[in-house]
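Instructor's aside before we start: the two examples that follow are unrelated to each other. I chose them only because their records fit on one page, so don't look for a connection. First example below.
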Amino acid sequence: MRKPTPDGGPERLVALADGVFAIAITLLVLDISVPQGLDPEEYRRALSDTLPNLGAYAISLAVLAGFWRDHRAIFRSVRQVDGDVIGLTMLGLGLAALLPFPTALVSEYGDEPVSVVIYSAAVASLGAVHIALAALVVRRPWLRGGAAPVRDETLYAVDLGATVVVFLVTIPLTLLIGPAAMWWWLVLLPVKVWLGRRENA
């Protein structure tokens, strides 16, 4: 296997990722607002209208936080990065920065199947890029200074795989039963709880 030329340590790449995830999370909240100058009845109606936005925000916050944690876990043992690692990281950061758009679609047009399909495809794509990045780091021990992958990295890979599968399955499920397929996302809760217990064991 060709050994690409290292491009330095991972510190700047990890710092960039931290910043992009922070900005993406901040952008999620910009669509949540209540107009000024409303009478009490209009105010209560406007406040109730924010509930879908808050729900979409909570889901995307959990998604982005999980991917940020997994990204940091992937880089925990990395000592050098190369062009391939940088390229995959930039692709993943581009998808993370894009997530506020499908989040807005789900919050405003959650009853449209295409909104759920777009959101699911975006999350699954982001997860797939993280899996590819994790696999690349595992296959190139020189990026880790020869160190073996730690146990936590395996659990994070399982976590990523579960997320990708659940959101990929959502796409055909949405085409069959409509936006109610979003309830399928709840299957990730027991999976992540179980993985969290394994990680802390």
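Example two begins here.
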Amino acid sequence: MSTITTPDGVEIFYKDWGPKTAQPIMFHHGWPLSSDDWDAQMLFFLAQGYRVIAHDRRGHGRSTQVSDGHDMDHYAADAAAVVQHLDLRNAVHIGHSTGGGEVARYVARHGEPQGRVAKAVLVSAVPPLMVKTESNPGGTPIEVFDGFRKALADNRAQFFLDVAAGPFYGFNRDGAKVSQGVINNWWRQGMIGGAKAHYEGIKAFSETDQTEDLKAISVPTLVMHGDDDQIVPIDDASRLSVKLLKNGTLKVYPGFPHGMLTTHADVINADLLAFIKS
């Protein structure tokens, strides 16, 4: 397996496919998944001639199940360690859900200051802030995330099955075309990771205010979101994010769920390719 070791001793697993001379596209996965969640995108862009990279976040997938560092600062620093190890330049960084938060922090604090980033994409992403606060009255109440934590601690296997079979892909909607394979694959990815990383990751994706990260990003940034996202509601995320970005564009997908990069990969891939080529 290909791994790098971060300055604080964490082994991060990564995939690096395609010509080393081609423009790199780096993918950042959502909670509680792994780089495998990007299979449909990585194979598509590999066929288009790009170099494609994806890593497993610390505590997730095949990376080390460490006790500490399950926060957006460490997520971004770990991504930066992979980028520096591979010496990626002129890269496009694409993040889904929690991975979108990772991209925002990475680009703002590491990628742009180092001159390594060409463009960014936030897909169904958590920024600027998910949880409801006095300054974010439209956010999701903390009790919802407390419920996630309890469900995970009580029976992580069942909780992950329920999320995948229900709201994540919109399989709980009337008329939805349910894929048992997609459900099983989500569950498989989740259960490979560590329970502590997943438990603490809930705080990371829900309570991290990324307003300043978004304001700091100047590269062209595409913000993609389905308007039937039951996990990260579009009005509390992408519609606010695009207003904070210096060079952001919002593309809304009517009826698409949170996991649209899987359920509607053909549409998402085509739009990603058009943005990267633009």
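The first helix runs from residue 39 to 47.
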